Amino acid sequence: MNIVGESAITDVAVAGARWMAGARRRKMTKVIDGRPLGRRERKKAERRAAIISVARQAFQISGFDGVSMEAIADAADISSATLYNYFPSKSEILYSVLLEDFSHLSDKITYILNARDVPLKSQLVQMIELYFYWFDEYDRILIRQVASDAIRSPQINGKSYHQIEKFMIMNLLDLLNRMVDCNSIREDIDIENSARLLFNIGNSEFYAFISDESISVEQTMDRIGSQIDLVITGIT
Q: Which pLDDT tens digit goes with each residue over 209-235?
């Protein structure tokens, strides 16, 4: 959940939307670009899914450092050379595990955002809460590993990780724009900077959350909720 640099949030939102459209396509195993998968493509997709599945279990049981590429290859019943053809590094496998799981989370978030009978502020809190409950399903050491790799090598290891951030900011922009439309917040506010501020609140609490195993989702959401109240009060 690292800050998205200095690029305009609107550009990030567009990129996030494009990625989510691609994520939905990637979830399909029977067709691609509207055409049926050939046998070879289907077998590759099935093998990739099998690798991700066994790696997910291995990471949860043994942690990132406790799992080798060779062990993943053995569990998937393939050679190490074949595994490297699919994933150039162990980090890339971990990112793929998270992104596959995130595609399911994004469906839940979309459902919340489409619930027009729920107050927009409540939608904002529920959306952030969903993210933290999702992070809480993983060993926090794994999440720290992903965050660390993304910071150390953003061009190599951070690309997939940042897609999640882009989707989050896109959702914040959508919510704030809808709040303006229904007069919940002022029309003269800077939507982009307000979205960045809300994102940074979640970002700072995210690092505290993954750094301390004793911090619960409930404690995190109490702190985030208080900070969101301050922001919303300031722009109402």
A: 999 999 999 999 999 999 999 998 888
Distances (CA, A) of 132 to 136, 188, 190, 207: 6, 31, 27, 11
Q: Is 80 exposed, middle or buried (0-12, 13-18, 19+ CB in 10 A)?
A: middle
pTM of the model: 0.73
Per-residue pLDDT tens digits for 35-71: 566 888 888 999 999 999 999 999 988 988 899 999 9
Domain locations along the chain: 9-235
User: Domain 9-235, CATH 3.90.550.10 — does that match?
Assistant: no
Rounded to 10 degrees, what is the CA torsion of 181, 187, 190, 193? -40
